[in-house]
Amino acid sequence: MRHRVVLLGSDEIALPAFEVVRSNPSVTLVAVYSQPDRPSGRGQEVQSNPVAAWAKSHGIPLRQPEKLTSADAVQLQSDEVALGVVMAYGQILKEDFLAAPALGLINLHGSLLPQLRGATPVEGALALGYTTTGVSLQQIVRQLDAGPLHGSASLTIESQDTRIPLRQRLGVLAGELLQHTLPQILAQASVPIPQEHAQATFTRRLLRTDAPLDFKAAAVVLAQRIKALAGWPGSTFEHQGVLLKVGAAYAVAGTAATPGEILAQGREGVRIACGQGHLVCTHLQRPGGKMLPAAEFLAGYRLEVGTVLASGVMPELVSAQPFSSRKTS
Questions:
Q1: pLDDT, tens digit, for every residue of 298-327?
Q2: Global pTM?
Q3: Is the CATH code 3.30.70.1560 the one for domain 208-300?
């Protein structure tokens, strides 16, 4: 018996799992739903996201609605879809859409639920200094990432992990998890287990305003946050009216000093006093320039020892309660 399946995703992290579905001999892949093509890069050229490009390369019917409507739910019913597989899609799925496939929709989420529900579980794990995270496969319900679990798999966060390599490893893990669980779900032999909702924590979408560093915080907190926000929005501090970006840093013990004071600078990095410990910035970038190792950066930009850098506001990335729209807008 062949099962008619649709995929919903927009980010590269979903591709290993989607390949598992595509290669399953008992699956007929009806369509891929993905975000519309959008301007990207410095030239703002309209480009497909990684999942849309993948679907096109394999000749899979591609649907890219700006917003899912009741017509899309009707389409699933007319297509006689049995199951939807979701990962990093980027749209809220409404009740009529969830009810359209015979077996509902399942979602691969980049954390060990109920921890780190929401949009940025990978960043949340890094920001909190987790040593272990993973992927959960949940049956989708209307409440955010609260559905019962068909399974999960864990991995160790390595000391050198930043957002991009960790996302890549979680994508591979998601494919491995789905490889084991998809046959049972299609055979209706998987009984999902309810989550422990009282233990839930929540993440939110990242904003440009998340970039400033607060040197009054502990150095280890700043080092973890820099890993979490690597790439976009990045982590920044202001020096004499110039906004500098920190690409990599680590925390060390050190004597107390005024938070934000530059204590040393050289080949090993720029050492900055924090509320607890010192932050050593090893890669820095000036506006319009490239991210450079500290030694190269300092050859063209002067950061004087004794200068006290201003601290910024660092909004929390993870909460014990869901973030309101006011906090994330």
A1: 999 999 999 999 999 999 999 999 998 643
A2: 0.95
A3: no
